[in-house]
Amino acid sequence: MADLKLLAALCVLIPLVGSTLWFWLGARFGEKVVSIGAVTFLVASFLCMLGMFFGVHEAARVDFFEWIRISSNASVHFSFLLDPLSLTLGLIVTGVGSLIHVYATGYMKGDPSFGRFFSYLNLFIFSMLMLVLSDSLVGLFLGWEGVGLCSYLLISFWFSEEANAIAGKKAFVVNRIGDFGFLIAIFALFQVFGTVSIPDILSAIHLGNLTADQMFWSKIACFGLILGASGKSAQIPLHIWLPDAMAGPTPVSALIHAATMVTAGVYLICRLQPLFLLNGGSLEIIAYMGGLTALFAASVAIFQNDIKKVLAYSTISQLGYMFLAVGLGAPVAAYFHLMTHAFFKALLFLGAGSVIHGLHHEQNMHKMGGLRKQMPITFWAMTVGVLAIAGIPPLSGFVSKDEILHTVSTSGRTALSVMAFLTAFMTAFYMGRLWVLTFFGKFRGHHEADESPLSMTFVLVTLAILSALGGLLNWPELWGGHELLNEFLSSVVVQKKIEISSEAFHHSLLLAGFSSLLGLAGLGLAWLRYRNFSGKEFEAPVFNLFKKKYYIDELYDIAIVRNLKQIGWILWKGVDGLCIDGFLNGLGTGTTRLANRLRGMQTGLAQQYAVWVWIGFLLLLFGAWTVR
């Protein structure tokens, strides 16, 4: 246990220490020291996580010290919960995070704030590890807020451009709405169970015998957690911050979308699954929220011209798949897709970053084309990522997405099935559009492209291999696999068991064939439409609804932002300016005027002072006579 405690402490503290070093080391010793140090620290954290992964054979609680004393009977301990759920995501965070750090050493080369960038990246990893490993809701919330802070710092990293600063503020403010829901959930759960320890809460739920009042507060907690998860994982209606998060450097986009922040909502619901099972209606909300988000974001991604915006809406859509799976009682399927998505989405974002880097920061796909010859490594790596997310067998995205589609198709919910399969087709189409516009046809840009340096292409090749082979982690038992992830997570979450029979095998095979055809059809349609791209598309007015993202940002601006600004103006001018400042300024002005009048009495003439003394004396005599 001592070794486990040391590994857990080092795993979290190493990136935290790194975040304090690179600021000043970068200014004093240059980029090379920061590059080697930041990557080494992350790899060391990954190795510690790997040691815990293979060293923990059953759920273990690592306690460090009493953190907060709430009452005589309740306290919050600074401790970690090491179980399959936390260790699996911890490996993704540190493993994919290490690869992104390696990539960033090449992508950010020459940036004047090189050290500051890697300090923020290390802090991001520390915050996510706190979120994943903490065994209490308070510790989880600390990491939850930490990743929110880091996202703000990194999205607005190039803050000298106003648009980047605005994007960072938008992400920060929208996430505070979700965080408010999470806080309500923490208070509600403490009201019910008298503790914020996650294992203690889950144990109490398993024991049952909750009163009607406790059930009421548990429902409030579920709704608060759903609001928090929708904010952090960019689900409807709090999805609006994630596309604007593309303002940050591309490694930041990959880190947010693949390995850290947006996966937090899925993790939170999987971690507290028994609470949601206790309130089954909340799972229905999660399922339909996920299905609608998946379809909505896919429909918007088709009409984006910025290569990173396409991938941003793709992330929102794929997260919708994960929420859909969790809501339908398949958390392992959601977690499996979370893992494979981390591989191929990191690959796609970093591949897009390689293209942007090679084209001197050009992001408009209309100004790309024909890059497969100039950037062959980037092309082949991204091809694997595109095929994986499109669901082409036997790549990882096909296996994980097929498991979700199988769950939806057997759930008896026709509307959700239509959403899921239509999203699968649209995903293949918009990714095919990205692939063809970027790498095929004639070059339409202004800058000749060059292949990225080895530090970047090495990471792309590694992620391409993981994207291709990641499906083996949970290859279906129906297809002769062992479902390793399912077995590993079975002690933590409840997953519906798939029947093993010839009928089930034929149904699964038919479903896999249909989903593969959808993927191929989407890619094929994109190839036919864009292989000879003329530079014009979606010009009809009917497409404005999708190009403007259903006018949701405009609606929020009219209904919320403008009204808040108006209220702020009234509070500023009316309450602060007129009432508070007016009263205080009036006191000051009145005192000054009175002092000016009284000052006239100070003439320096002894005779005048004597007169005032006699007047005062007479007034005192008069007063004494009157009182008597």
Shape: globular
Q: Tally the helices.
A: 25
Largest sheet: 2 strands, antiparallel
Query: Uncertain spans, ≥5 residues at pLDDT below 50?
Result: none
Strand order of the largest sheet: 1-2
Helix content: over 70%
- State the end-to-end distance: 90 Å
Strand content: under 5%
Helix and strand string, N-terminal first? HHEEHHHHHHHHHHHHHHHHHHHHHHH
Counting helices, strands and paired strands, the structural category is mainly alpha
Output the radius of gyration: 30 Å
Number of strands: 2
What is the number of domains?
Answer: 3
What is the overall pLDDT average? 89
Structure, described:
The chain is 73% helix and 3% strand. It is mainly alpha-helical. It folds into three domains: 1-278, no CATH class; 284-536, no CATH class; 554-627. A two-stranded antiparallel sheet has the order 1-2. A hairpin with a 5-residue loop joins strand 1 and strand 2 (75-82). The longest helix has 48 residues, at 552-599. The mean pLDDT is 89.
